[in-house]
Every structure is written in C-alpha cells, then in structure tokens.
Amino acid sequence: MENHTINKSEQTRYFIVSNGHIHYGMVEQGQVMDTSLPNLEIFTVKEDWVNRLIELGIDYEDEIDY
C-alpha cells in the first residue's frame, strides 16, 4: 500500500482522502500529513476544496469551521 504525504508545504493545503469513508481537513504551512488511504485529492484554493466537498455531499458549513 502506497503512502501519500503532504510534507512541510510553503502554503496551506486542503485535502480529501477516501477509502469507503471520506476524511478531509487542512495542513498548514510547515505541517506534515501522511496517509495510507489510496484516494488523495489536494487543493491549494479553499474554494475549490469546499466545492469538491459539496459535490461529495458533505455540508461544509455544518461540519467544520476554518
């Protein structure tokens, strides 16, 4: 199984990972995020990330407050 890493990015990155269940969040500058889940989408524009969450049926406004 392949690992996916967001490693100490110079800008905030937003992500969605899935493997039957959807997990999502953000990685701020200098942070590291590692996952072994196979499906990883990374966004640098928050609006694009929010739009993708909505496409996936996730009510962004009710779920999280960034």
Describe this structure in words.
21% of the residues lie in helices and 38% in strands. It is an alpha+beta fold. It has one domain. The strands form two sheets. The chain has a three-stranded antiparallel β-sheet, with helices on one face. The chain is flat and about 30 Å long. The mean pLDDT is 83.
Q: What would the keywords be for this entry?
A:
2 helices; two-stranded antiparallel ribbon; 66 residues; single chain; three-stranded antiparallel β-sheet; flat; alpha+beta
Note the topology.
Elements: E1 4-7, E2 13-18, E3 22-27, E4 32-35, E5 39-43, H1 46-55, H2 60-63
Antiparallel strand pairs: 1-4, 2-3, 2-5
Order of strands side by side in the largest beta sheet?
3-2-5
**Rg over alpha carbons:** 12 Å
Largest sheet: 3 strands, antiparallel
Distance between the termini: 31 Å
| Total DSSP E strands | 5
Overall structural domain count: 1
Report a brief summary of the structure.
With 66 residues, the protein is of the alpha+beta class. 21% of the residues lie in helices and 38% in strands.
